[in-house]
Amino acid sequence: MSKRFTVGAVATAAVLALTAAGLGVPASAAPSTSRTFTVVAEDGVAVDTAVAAIRAAGGTVVSSSDEVGMFQVTSDRADFASRAAAAPTLVGAAEQKAIGRKPKLDRVEQEHLTAATKAAAGAAARRGAKMDPLDDKLWGLEMIRADKARKIEPGDRRVTVGVLDTGVDASNPDIAPNFNWALSRNFAPDRTDVDGPCEVPSCLDAVGTDDGGHGTHVAGTIGAAANGFGLSGVAPNVSLVELKGGQDSGYFFLDPVVNALVYAGRNGIDVVNMSFYVDPWLYNCTANPADSPEAQAEQRAIIKAMKRALEFAHNKGVTLVGALGNNNEDLGAPRTDTSSPDYGADPYPRPIDNNSCWDLPTEGPHVIGVSSVGPSGKKSDFSNYGTEQISVAAPGGWFRDGFGTDTFRTDANMILSSYPKHVLQEEGSVDADGNIVAGFEESVFKQCKANGECGYYTYLQGTSMASPHAAGVAALIVSRYGKPQGRGGFGMSPDQVEQHLYRTAAEHACPEPRLQQYRNEGRDETYDAYCAGGLNFNGFYGYGIVDAYAAVKTPLKLNARP
Hints:
Layout: E1 35-41, H1 47-56, E2 60-65, E3 70-75, H2 80-86, E4 90-95, E5 100-101, H3 111-114, H4 139-143, H5 146-152, E6 160-165, E7 185-186, H6 192-195, H7 214-223, E8 239-244, H8 254-266, E9 271-274, E10 277-278, E11 284-285, H9 293-315, E12 319-323, E13 357-358, E14 367-373, E15 392-395, E16 415-419, H10 421-427, E17 444-448, E18 454-460, H11 463-481, E19 483-485, E20 489-491, H12 494-504, E21 515-516, E22 529-530, H13 548-553
Parallel strand pairs: 6-8, 6-9, 7-8, 9-12, 12-14, 14-15
Antiparallel strand pairs: 1-3, 1-4, 2-3, 5-10, 11-13, 16-18, 17-18, 19-20, 21-22
């Protein structure tokens, strides 16, 4: 009997097996006229029927992810994408090129390095709870009461948190104790067109490395060990799982991201953090009239594959947490998109219809969307917001917080976390000998053990930094209230995790006036943001700022509503 794809179903056998990396064609393959596409089948279409349609359109199937009806295809036909889109059994074809990015130097996340005014040396540090040596700089831990939470629940080693990102530097002494080598995987081989020359012959970087830095920063916030060294994370005893779905250059391709989510579902990962966004389309639309028919079909394929992957992971027990985005935009009333496509072609204005366009993965099903606040509790100027998509708020940093005080425009307003030494060296803040370059003493920190083993830490800001705070609290909830499952497994229903996270968040009312302007911080009217909603739920804070202490102290209520 021919197997069919059904949303939420688990494939009993793979007709076409994936490679260990999740991709069938190595990035180092010899140049040819052939291009690589991701093809998505329509709902309910049998695998062999989809394969036949792909062949008829002029493609060769290399691998498949049957749980989500997705195929990796090569073709040398210039019109393959349009032929695939015309096939009634196929949604469309997206050429395998960057569809998500987290650049090494992000103008929002590293504003302190691009700002005209650098943080003054000796600026007063934000004081948090002193646990590890650098924890006095982690105001975010104090804001969400993670310091108090760990006295009740520091996290359970059986609880696994997937970091779907650019990789994780497992050599950092704060990451190493909690890094799960057995479950960690790299789904994103280096591609020379965006990443430069491969570091290894296979182009598949070793697990436990991170040439982008972003994933290591996220991992440290979630679960850096409380070991008397460096700094500690929100859930310092949980297991960290590298799910490398982002390229070294910061781009995210559809295949690695989807395959990482499917892998998380198959392998019982409890929480997955997604601090990235989907492009070359800032919004993926089903039929935007500004787009060509081929671009429309490509976006429909991206939407379908991402939604299926998120559904699959959720149905298999994965709690999904995502960054709301750094575009200072109400996601329920999006502006005209002038930045897409941002790869492979010149951008053009695209009016966005909120009913048929999605910012993925944060607007995908079952994703807990997280906005960013600064040390003052005010919404970070860059953070997306809106009652339609927000779930909770969390500390994400805000360089420009504290107007009128000596903390204004200082690095201490941002989020400090682990970072790879070699990336800091590439960025110019650490020299070849591993020493901090003069002028970066307030933004980069080095901690060493007696045996000479060192860890490095730096400040970043963004909803990418807020999301891991929420993911860490979710991991504490699973640790506290999870139950044994299956053959030696352990976990908790994602719906229960989500409800408890919302119910225990610290409610935060909209500011007055509700229309927030950021003129004092040097922002123009495009940053103006209106906060709709009430105390229980509003567009800036959702159900509130996540509260780790309340999450582990408050008894779990089954089927409770926030």
